[in-house]
Amino acid sequence: MTETRRWQPSQYQPAHRSHVPKYVSIYRDLKTAISGGDLVPGEPLPSQRELSQGYGVTLMTLRQALTLLADDGLVNTEHGRGTFVADRPYRLPLGPLGSFAEEMRRSGRRLRTEVLDYARIRAPAAVVARLSLRSELAFRLVRLRHIDDRPLLLQTSYLPLSLGRRLQIEQLADRSLYAVLDEDLEVPVARAVESIQAISLTAEDAETLQRSVHQPALLSNRLTYTDGDRPILDDRAIMPGDSVVISAERRPDDVQVNFIFSTDLATETGPSSTSPSSTTPSRSPM
Known about the structure:
By secondary structure, the chain is an alpha+beta fold. It is built from nine helices and twelve strands. The protein has helices at residues 22-35, 48-55, 59-71, 100-107, 125-130, 161-164, 177-184, 203-209, 265-269, and strands spanning 75-78, 82-85, 90-93, 111-122, 137-147, 150-160, 191-200, 216-226, 230-240, 244-247, 257-260, 278-281.
């Protein structure tokens, strides 16, 4: 049986130059090992003592390099356990409107949807207003989306009761809600207004997403419309901050991202968790 060869700092001794600090050279070397696949997500780095001895530097110099890697989101340090290569975040592009499932298929990631709850409920006042409901009754659907077998997105969706009670819930394990609305219920998706803001995970959400309480996260509030500018879907999606990067290709003739103050957010998309700032992309996949 062939023994797996563990990466060691001696394999990538950086060439120290007088104008490049040693910790920068070590940072670049470790970054190359991570991006090149020699160090894979979840793998522990050698201990700080091993690394400092391998590179021939002090612990203080080595820690400066690890700090740069952590700032880049490439490693995580767990007290008492060591330093680990961070999971590669999913890049959520702000592009044409589409479903989260469609985007996952394009990216080659493995998506699994778990329906946690669905019920007829008395909707919060903000949901009633956003969906222009005639009564407080609505349909609530809660799903947990797993990417590559890790929880990534906790999504709570509100629909008018007339639509929600027609859903075949078991189909949502393999199909997007947008597809079911369009293909099965003949309610096409025309446009959506979405805001994304920073929050901290509550104890309940952290447990569901298998993250730490108060860990930074992103909250997406999206209101989807059908033909005739009629609101049909009010979504609230929570994504751990260590797993998602928001990206956009921006051109002078194609406005995709608008910046608003968090104090104005309620007038745009309804109340949500507090946040120091927010953005409202006009179109993005979820």
